[in-house]
Amino acid sequence: MKSQWASQLLDKYYKAEDHRSISSKKKISSHIDHDYTIVDAGCGSEAPLLINFVGKASKLIGVDLVDFHPSIQDKGLLLLNTDLANIDLEDSSVDLVISRSVLEHIWDVESVYKEINRILRPGGKFIF
């Protein structure tokens, strides 16, 4: 949902393959399988990164402390309004955790890393 102005700036100042949002989507896509459960840790109110993977994974879960925007309520996402150190998911239930521009805002980094480790399946990945 980029504005025309934002698209013009991207075209003017960045090559498509070099822009961080495009490169992160490509990197994440290379690690996704259709039967995966993916968690976006700190997804934001509109889950802009997570929405890119609708239809590409079995289950998409956004986690954030913010109120979720009504526009994403029917996009096929499970949205959890909670702290990243206390995610209400079963142990070893997630194949991939992604997080972009979030971890530098975390106060209790150790608790968040422990929680991400708890929900990841053995062999699961954390891309941040």
Secondary structure category: alpha/beta
Radius of gyration: 15 Å
Give the end-to-end Cα distance, rounded to a whole number of Å.
Answer: 22 Å
- Which geometry do the CA atoms define? globular
User: How confident is the prediction overall: mean pLDDT?
Assistant: 90
Question: Mind summarizing the main beta sheet?
Answer: 5 strands, parallel
DSSP helix fraction: 10-25%
User: How many distinct helices?
Assistant: 3
Q: Unreliable runs, pLDDT <50, ≥5 residues?
A: none
Kindly state the number of beta strands: 5
Strand content: 15-25%
Describe the 3D structure:
This protein is of the alpha/beta class and 128 residues long. It has 3 helices and 5 strands. Strands 3-2-1-4-5 form a 5-stranded parallel beta sheet. Strand 4, helix 3 (109-119) and strand 5 form a beta-alpha-beta unit. The protein is globular, with a radius of gyration of 15 Å.
Topology:
Blueprint: H1 4-13, H2 20-29, E1 37-41, E2 59-64, E3 77-81, E4 94-98, H3 109-119, E5 120-127
Parallel strand pairs: 1-2, 1-4, 2-3, 4-5
Key attributes of the depicted protein:
single chain, five-stranded parallel beta sheet, 128 residues, alpha/beta
Give a brief rundown of this model:
By secondary structure, the protein is an alpha/beta fold. It is 24% helix and 23% strand.
